[in-house]
Amino acid sequence: MSKVVKIKKGLDIKLKGSAEKVLAKATIAESYAVKPTDFAGLMPKLVVKQGDQVKVGTPLFFDKNRPEIMFVSPVSGTVSAINRGERRKLLEVVVTPGTEQEYEKHNVGNAASLNREELIALMLKGGVWPFIKQRPYGIIANPSDTPKDIFISGFDTAPLGVDMDFILTNEAEHFQKGIDILKKLTPNKVHLGVTTGNAASGILKKVKGVESTIFTGPHPAGNVGVHINHIAPINKGEIVWTIDPQLVALLGRFFTSGIYNVEKIIAVAGSEVKRPQYFRIITGASLKCIAYNIASENSPRYISGNVLTGTELSADGFLGFYDNMISVIPEGNHHELFGWAKLFRPKVFSTSHAYLSFLTPNKKYALDTNLNGGERAFVMTGQYEKVLPMDIYPVYLLKAILAEDIDKMEQLGIYEVIEEDLALCEFVCTSKTEVQAILRKGIDLMIKEMS
Amino acid sequence: MKALRRYLDKIKPTFSKGGKLGMFHSTFDAFESFMFVPNTVTHKGSHIRDGIDLKRTMSVVVLALMPALLFGMWNTGYQHFMSMGLTEQVSFWQTFWFGFWKVLPIVIVSYVVGLGIEFAFAQSRGHEVNEGFLVTGMLIPLIMPVDVPLWIVALATAFAVIIGKEVFGGTGMNVWNPALLARAFVFFAYPSHISGDKVWIASMIKGEGIIDGFSGATPLAIAANGTGETGANMTVEALQQQMPSVYDMFMGFIPGSIGETSKLAILLGAAILLITGIGSWRIMLATVVGGLGMGYLCNFLAVNPYMELPAYYHLLMGGFAFGAVFMATDPVSASQTNTGKWIYGLLLGIMIVIIRIFNPAYPEGVMLAILLMNTFAPLIDYYVVGANINRRLKRTKVQA
User: Fold this and answer.
1) CA-based nearest distance B135→chain A, Å
2) B397 contacts chain A (CB < 8 A)
3) CB contact under 8 A, B51 and A380
4) Domain end: A257, A287, A314, which one?
5) What pTM value is reported for the model?
6) Best mutation site among A326, A352, A385 for testing chain B: the one with the most B CBs within 10 Å?
7) A249 CA: distance to closest CA in chain B (Å)
8) Same domain, A147 and A227
């Protein structure tokens, strides 16, 4: 019997437009992009230029600090644009697919007989290494490290979160293969966090070779950071690796076929989606391919990922590398007369009982992106603690970051959290503090100081 | 309302940076965001946000103070007419209106002075105007004696806002509860206006028409008779005889600061704070437990009638209830960790009773006890957070 961990603190935000478990027809986008900004702390160095022909799996850029880590093209075709932002920061490498798909093929042989070094070398060359992230910091794992453990969260509790069982329905074999490979990368265990909602017949319950732990409770119960914190919290100097379950299957696929195949199943959900459901899509696809499914006439907010942690996209933006969903919600750029003073505000959800939304706990909302107030200094206390199921004092950690006090940050547990773990703190904050941005600033500072 | 919105949109550029009146940006923003929830959208981090904001939070607290304010107005009239022996002759509304016109100027002075300074500071710093003073501005009148001169209210408010809050960086940065600081200012700078038996009842200082033998002393002042020489030859029953009945003290038909007398009105406010979750139940409960506990301990060790007074008397006398519900729970100046809140509240309750009973110079201990605990709150939190740090360090050592 697996260990059961009951998460009590947290918050399930019930939104309209959760994806129906129906797989839409395969969609082909007119262009695909790899975005260096998807990888925290990455310093990219381009190896292609506009107009170059690339195959599936051809490197587009690599990590300046760790040149062995390659980022490869998800499709074959022409590099049609290299988009840069302020100070020439590299934002997107766009590839327009050609009619014929050509592949860079790697000789993976029989993965079961390869040793750790050979596996890592293949993963680096094949462009699948960035699948693995490390804690602390939530950056791409360092191939020269040996992680204490590897953690996978088999379920998603975020608002409108995806159903991993559904996504992995036809990937059982690849998922098992991916797990077998991961097992060779760590001298210890591969931990898989599951929940009581996971189907008994699904691969997540049947997979072999993992240490399963059952987590129940509200979001962030599905966050891998919470799992790590409850199973074996990260101490100073320790490194664990994490990987998304769908990427485990893609890893298995790579070692089966030898090609970089990042076609995955994502949910397109949210109140502005006509028919919220699942789509088969290649990572990096342009959102234009789902535009027909958007109901809103006013331009809505497109988010790669969930509404708490995802990245804001324009209507022609590209799906992020790690994301399993696209959320589309209304923009909140409107004024509301005396909104803060109204007794009833049926469209507003609040954890605070100062609004009456606590009387209708099962109501679903079409929340928009309005900040619902102005940014203020920290005033209220005890709010963050209610939604963070970890033994951490988030406000003190944030204040240490704002003061750039490295020692205090370390002592208060910065190694144990990344943005997604504190996303709910940001959601509930009365003072509208930019919790995730502050935390990333702190992590960047740690990386700089500790290297 | 659309017309108003259009008008605001039209004049907004004038008040924006670079506009003709750009220097009044904060003031404009304060009025605009008062009328309309701003159209700001999220860009970093979480795309959706909780509906709560500081305006809502603070207005709930102000709402929770309303029962105490309204009762305070009525009681001001009631005490006044009682001192003249006229309670039979005046109607409810006459009583209320008398108090209303006594209290309203204090409220207005507090808000005008305080908000004026807040706006000026926000303006000079280029910040948005913070809502914190909405509550402070209401608390200050409620903890003043009704006969306090308005210029003292103005001076105390200015002191509290400037020295108590703005020098530290504004709302959220202050060490002490600003409203209590205003009271402490009056207490130490103009003691004759906030102590003694005559200041608690309107027009009693003037002394016209006061009936013979009417003292105007607060229950706490009477209870203090139960110590020292006067108390030496007195039984606790005799002391209780001198004091108002428990019913009167609970309902609030007693002299005292404007908002502190009615425990019923305060309980209504406490209910609002607790249901909305805006006031900390930990602090309120811990303060009451601390006060009662110390009260019982005094009963046990009693050497004079004051110490023999039933412990629950301490909850009914003076500002204990008001302090525990509205003052001690100020999230900025109280302890911020949940464990810290328990310690803070317990010590606060204990301290109030100690100051009341054992310090002959101050009949009331709530104000000083809360200010003292405000001072220690960061220290309490320091140790609570320190324990968290130690747990983390220990974990590392066990591993190594």
Assistant:
1) 13
2) no
3) no
4) A257
5) 0.92
6) A352
7) 28
8) yes
Q: Give the nearest chain B residue to A411 (CA atoms).
A: B389
Residues A136 and A217 grouped into a single domain: yes
Do A174 and A53 lie in a common domain? no
Tell me which chain B residues have a C-beta less than 8 angstroms from the C-beta of A338.
35-36
Is residue A393 domain-shared with residue A441, that is, in the same domain? yes
Task: Decide: helix, strand or coil at residue A430.
Answer: coil
**Residues A137, A63 share a domain:** no
Say how far apart CA A260 and CA A126 lie, in whole Å. 6
Query: Which residues sit opposite A134 in a β-bridge?
Result: A139, A241
Distance from CA of B289 to the nearest CA of A (A): 21
Burial of B91 (0-12, 13-18, 19+ CB in 10 A): exposed
**Do A190 and A68 share a structural domain?**
no
Per-residue pLDDT tens listing for chain B (400 residues): 677 777 777 777 777 766 677 667 777 777 777 777 777 788 888 999 998 989 899 999 999 999 999 999 999 999 999 888 888 888 999 999 999 999 999 999 999 999 999 988 888 887 778 888 899 999 999 999 998 999 999 999 999 999 989 998 888 889 999 999 999 999 999 988 888 888 888 887 777 778 877 888 888 888 888 887 777 778 888 888 888 999 999 999 999 999 999 999 999 999 999 999 999 999 999 999 999 999 999 999 988 888 889 999 999 998 999 999 999 999 999 999 999 999 999 999 999 999 998 887 777 889 999 999 999 999 999 999 999 999 998 888 776 5
**Is residue B275 less than 8 Å (CB to CB) from chain A?**
yes
The whole-angstrom distance between A238's CA and the closest CA on chain B is: 9
Instruction: Judge whether A130 lies within some domain.
Output: yes
A281 within domain boundaries = no
**Cβ B1–A437 below 8 Å, yes or no?**
no
Residue A20 lies in a domain: no
Locate the domains of chain B by residue range. 2-37+55-193, 280-399
B9 in contact with A at a CB cutoff of 8 Å?
no
The CA radius of gyration of chain B, in Å to the nearest whole number, is: 23
ipTM: 0.90
Please check whether residues A76 and A200 belong to one and the same domain: no
Are A207 and A125 contained in the same domain? yes
Q: Which domain holds residue A391?
A: 371-450
| CA–CA dist B132, B377 (Å, integer) | 19
The number of folded domains in chain A is 3
- Bridge partners of A92, per DSSP, are A83
**B 227-266 near A (Cβ less than 8 A):** none
What six digits make up the tokens of B198? 């005559």
Residue B84 corresponds to which amino acid? M
Residue listed under structure tokens 């309670």 = B87
Inter-chain touch A369–B48, beta carbons under 8 Å: yes
